Amino acid sequence: MITNGIDAYIEPENYPYGVMMVHSFTISDRYLTGKTEVSPVDKPKPFFSWNLSKNEIVFFDSESEYNLFAKNNGLPKSSEFKTFRKSYREYWGGLKFWMLP
């Protein structure tokens, strides 16, 4: 995942526009799943699942379609997605931040 401090991006191999903006996401052992962010260049379907080991992305037309896929594959539901900013704050917040060299 790439970020400029404000937006998060991914670069799956089979995505025709190269870089895709991510609104919110969650990461599991083999998948990065989330909600897409519409950009001026592309308008992807609203939900996705990126298989990290195969470097393939699958899009879903609706939240319910994604949640069914998630249930069948043991993945987090869409209600568990977090923005990059929130994930970063939760990971680096508190004492971890002050313990950095």
Question: How would you characterize the overall build of this protein?
Answer:
- The chain has one domain.
- By secondary structure, it is α+β, with helices and mostly antiparallel strands.
- The protein has a 6-stranded antiparallel β-sheet.
- It is built from 3 helices and 6 strands.
- Strand 3 (20-27) and strand 4 form a beta hairpin.
- SS content category: alpha+beta
> Rg to the nearest angstrom?
14 Å
Strand portion:
25-35%
Kindly report the spatial arrangement of strands forming the biggest sheet.
Answer: 1-2-3-4-5-6
Largest sheet: 6 strands, antiparallel
Net shape: globular
Low-confidence stretches: none
Question: Oligomer, anyone?
Answer: single chain
The helix content is 10-25%
Write down how many β-strands occur, each being a DSSP E stretch of 2 or more residues: 6
Name the helix and strand elements from N-terminus to C-terminus, one letter apiece: EEEEEEHHH
Head-to-tail CA distance between termini? 24 Å
Work out the helix count: 3
Short structural description:
With 101 residues, the protein is an alpha+beta fold.
Topology of this structure?
Layout (H helix, E strand, L loop, with lengths): L1 E2 L4 E3 L9 E8 L3 E6 L10 E5 L4 E5 L2 H11 L10 H9 L2 H4 L3
Antiparallel strand pairs: 1-2, 2-3, 3-4, 4-5, 5-6
